Every structure is written in C-alpha cells, then in structure tokens.
C-alpha cells in the first residue's frame, strides 16, 4: 500500500471515529434527558400518592378532633 493510500485510509478512519464519537455523545445526552424526565414523572406520582395519604390522615385527624369536642 502506498504512503498516500495509507494516509487516506488513516484520515478516513479518523473521520468515521469522530462521527461515531459525536453520535455517541448526542445519544448519551438524549438518554440522560429521558432519564431525568422519567425520574421527574416517578417523583410526581409519588408526590400525588403522598398527597392522597396526607388527605386521608387529615380527615381522620379532623374526625378525631370532632369526637373529642363532643
């Protein structure tokens, strides 16, 4: 293989490696953002569940308070 062909082959390899690297970084960013969104949704669901439990405890507390004052 001539020196020019070796240089061209090496250059082509570097270009494709750089393209793969850019693609990998973009995919990594996408996965990170999606993970944040999923984590946010899970936290939102947990918050809603805790709100429901708090509401039940508040109702029980109010009922007990009424029972004590009667």
Q: Can you offer a commentary on this structure?
A:
The protein has 70 residues and is an all-alpha fold. The chain has one domain (10-69). It has one helix at residues 3-69. It starts with a helix and ends with a helix. The mean pLDDT is 87.
Brief write-up:
With 70 residues, this protein is mostly helical. The chain contains one helix and no strands. It has one domain.
Summary tags:
mainly alpha; signal; 0% strand; 96% helix; lipid binding; ApoL
Radius of gyration (CA) equals 30 Å
- Beta strands, count: 0
Distance between the termini: 100 Å
What is the average of the pLDDT values?
87
Give the arrangement of secondary structure elements.
Elements (H helix, E strand, L loop, with lengths): L2 H67 L1
Family: Belongs to the apolipoprotein L family.
Pfam families: ApoL
GO biological process, one term: lipid transport
